[in-house]
Amino acid sequence: MTDSLLRIEDLHVEIAGRGRTVHALDGIDLDLAPGEALGIVGESGCGKTMTALSVLGLLPGGGKVTGGRILFDGPRGTADGPTDLAAAPEPVLRDIRGNTIGMVFQDPLTSLNPTLTIGAQVAEPLLLHTRCTKAEAWEKAAETLRLVGMPRPAERMKNYPHQLSGGMRQRVAIAMALVCEPRLLIADEPTTALDVTTQHQILELIDELRERLGMAMILVTHDLGVIARRVDRVAVMYGGKIAERAAVRPLFATPRHRYTQALFAALPERATDGAQPLATIPGLPPSLVTRPAGCRFAPRCGFATDHCRTTEPELTADGATGAAGHTFACFHPADPAPGQDPTAEVRPAAPAAPPAGTGEPLLRLDGVAKTYPLHGGPFARRRGAGAEVSAVAGISLTVRRGETFGIVGESGCGKSTLGRMVVGLEAPTGGTIHFAGRDIATLTKRELRAHRRDVQLMFQDSYASMDPRMRVSAVLREPLVIQGIGDRAEQARRIAGLLDDVGLPRGAVDRYPHEFSGGQRQRLGLARALALSPSLVVADEPVSALDVSVQAQILNLMRDLQRDKGLTYLFISHDLAVVRHLADSVGVMYLGKLVETGPAERVFARPLHPYTRGLLDTVNAPDPDAEQAGTPLGGETPSAAAPPSGCRFRTRCPAARELCATTEPPVTEPETPGHRVACHFPLTSEPAGDGAAPTAGPIQ
Amino acid sequence: MTTTALDATQPEAALATPSLARRTLTVFARNKLALTGALVLLGLLAFCFLGPLIHPTDQIHTDLTQASLAPGGAHPLGTTDLGYDLLGRLMYGGQTSLEVGLAAGLLATLFGTVYGAVAGYFGGWVDAAMMRVTDAALAIPALFLLVVVAAIVTPSKPVLILIIASVAWLSPARLIRGEALALRSRDYIHAMRLMGGGGGRAVFRHIVPNAIGTVIVNATFQIADAILYVAYLSFLGLSIPPPAADWGSMLSAGITYTQVGYWWLIFPPGIAIVLVVAAFNFIGDGLRDAFDVRLTKN
Questions:
Q1: CB pairs below 8 Å between A and B: how many?
Q2: Which of A215, A223, A304, A615 is most buried (CB neighbours < 10 A)?
Q3: Please, which residues bridge with residue A16 across strands?
Q4: Which residue of B has its CA nearest to A526?
Q5: What is the greatest pairwise CA distance in chain A?
Q6: Can you tell me the distance from the alpha carbon of A235 to that of A252, in angstroms, rounded to the nearest whole number?
Q7: Residues A39 and A115 in one domain
Q8: What are the chain B neighbours of A468 within 8 Å (beta carbons)?
């Protein structure tokens, strides 16, 4: 193994905090050949970022390497032996960072300096690491920016980070990491903060650059879809240790460690039948303050025996897996029988599917619009500065009682604004919202107060939605107090019932919100939303901040509660897989417009709008063999302050023609009733234009 | 299924955790400087309010036979030019200073907090109108205002408290308004509005409690400032008339005798003012740190 570029041997990292020590990494062994791409996956807190940071000697305050070696091949062009980065002095590390090892961080906004032009920032590593003049560095920086797909790099170099979009900023960050032509690129969740389509572009870019520059890469991510087709080998981490290590195909085809297996099973993409509940991993990841004796996954593992709880499994291979180098630390590995659905064993028996929403319309939106003045403040309007942002532009849809209506779209498409208008946090600037047959704009103050009981919002960040100074009992009692429901004893009884419903211990009432984990807080958020027994719950990205295994718990819980309480959900998400799993009907939004709506299975199976098609083609399927179908979306979403004329999607549409620029497309139902699309040239099975006679009308 | 799993992994979930107030105190107690400040303040309070029980003196009648005695004998800190025992007068004057300072500081904080929270939460023209009032009031120099008002009405303790509070509420009002502006867009305020809750609940149940750190820290500084204002006013001779006393008027009276070298008339009240103001400032700093960390996980 002398030809490896990076070899991590038995790495231990501890982080000393206030009065306690976290054993962040506990014996990590990794090996990376030149030009190879390694994916590190795991849930938050499993140590994957710590592994990446320790390679660069950038551990956070209080963190230090307490054992093991990080051997990095000597500097390019010399015959030095490998350098031990764990023991190397700071000047050596400084020479390596940004030079032979480049790093891309998650948030491109905070990893760029807002006061420097992007040109200066991309040129900076060159000036630090090579003997070149400012002019040469500037030239090389422009070249690198062109390489990462920055349009007109020479002009853009004089821009500041805030003048670029998120995707462009991440391109700049990548250019900074690549400008010295490193031999190793470490990318820590490089696309997590980006939209699906941008994410795809960035991943493609990294792929292509890796090929062209022949560099090795470590891709750290929580998203199994991201690594599936981007890396050669994968290391699955759990609780500060490596649970399983394998080439990407064997890992996805036959995961052996029970944790890996459960992780795959929890993916909404893998639950092909939307009526089935997702497989979940009960409980929470370990805290790493103590070092448990046995297997770290044992407390959450359905196959754990006493042996697992007392003895720590080593990374081993067995003859069952054909591929070489497929090792796992598990005493009771999953059966790698070929052709078997790896998720089948752990999926619990499914209860009957909930009845799809066939009831009467509960919520009806007619041409709902929201525009914001671009310059706020009391004086702006008087001056008549006409600039406006059209966040939502004429949305019409109907949600039936008992169904889950999913709204999907990229960030900035107006889906959250729509949700806020439905719950009444914001008033629409156009159109009407009817709830249970009544226009909510005409409700008196008193009726509105009563109406509040019927419509509740489930927030994306439950922690932010709870007063941090209130105990859970006060948080859950507040809606009851405001609405004057019951006396104290009755309220306490209801709160206990709510906690039972969402699967939290009743003792939780005496704790503060910050003492709960993300998934538990989301349960609390759901409990509070249900306190007033609403008929409609608007869920705004309720699971997007959660790890996969916890996300599955929450999605199952929402589904169970819907069945038990007859809830209607308006489910807002950017995650197509989650919406596909949960929703009965979907609406696809683009730049404030609803471009397509219909039954979920129809829309996902046979999308009519090019945007929906593009979104589906762009999704990173967690399957290394998935062929890239069709054409993923290119370009970026235009600004809502100056939306394109005619069809708003035309600037990115592969099928756009002259008509699209001049006329707004009518809403038609070209194939099946109820599946509506707003497009001049929908993707029907017939050639565009002469399909079934379009039935014009608002989407309902 | 998941219920049992949560119970199993979190056996401590059933236990109540210490209240926020208790945790704040724990962090505060770890700050040596703040703790010293608190002890100094307690000492001064005991000195002023319990001291006269141990060292009773006549602070009403002048006794010119005992005028301007140097420290020693029956008068540990000497006597004033009118024959009052200085140690006793320091206690007696301290009562006025502390009472007026505390009351004025608290009154200003209370009013300013509510005013600022209301302006910040409701925003729009309510905010604009309310804040223009504070801007206008702030444009008038505080000392000038105090002098004018004190010259018109004869000061007594309640009058003094009102005068000082009427100047001092402006800065907490602006401070809390800023906090309220940030807090009102928090999701938990949205959540409360969605439950049907109104402005009163938002201001008193959510905004003020969540700004409480800022409020309390500011209150300690307000009290320190108010004690200084009392001293300014009395130094200018605009305080409660004799035979009442406070530290400021004692300082003012002592200044006359600097040339003669009656140092005991100046240092004791001067040191007392410095001590109490410093103590309140240390407490304020300590509280600020305590409020900062207590919502983090430990």
A1: 112
A2: A615
A3: A21
A4: B191
A5: 81
A6: 12
A7: yes
A8: 210, 295
Q: Does B3 touch chain A (CB under 8 A)?
A: yes
Q: What is the arithmetic mean of pLDDT over A316-327?
A: 69
Q: Please check whether residue A138 lies inside any domain of the structure.
A: yes
What is the C-alpha separation between A444 and A657, in angstroms, rounded?
48
A14 and A100, same domain (yes or no): yes
Whole-number Cα distances in Å, B9 to A485, B5, B274: 34, 6, 54
Q: Which neighbouring-strand residues pair with B68? A: none
A282 and chain B in contact, CB less than 8 A: yes
Residue B130 in domain: yes
- The distance of A149 to chain B (nearest Cα, Å) reads 38
Tens-digit pLDDT profile for residues A246-255: 888 888 888 8
Closest chain B residue to A448, measured at CA: B196
Quote the ipTM score.
Answer: 0.73
Instruction: Please list, in sequence order, all residues whose beta carbon lies within 8 angstroms of the beta carbon of residue A374, skipping any fewer than 6 positions away.
Output: A385, A387, A388, A389, A641
The range of the structural domain enclosing residue B131 comes to 32-49+71-293
The phi, psi pair for A462, rounded to 5°, reads -65, -30
Q: How far apart are CA A479 and CA B195, in angstroms?
A: 5
Structure tokens at A489: 């004893």
Prediction pTM value: 0.79
Closest A-chain CA to B198: A482
Q: With beta carbons under 8 A apart, name residues in chain B contacting A555.
A: none
Which domain covers residue A311, as residue numbers?
241-328
Contact (CB<8Å) B5/A456: no
| Residues in CB range of A475: below 8 A, 6 or more apart | A466, A467, A513, A524, A528
- pLDDT tens-digit series, residues A611-639: 998 888 877 777 777 665 566 777 777 87
Would you tell me which residues 230-269 of chain B have a C-beta closer than 8 angstroms to some C-beta of chain A? none
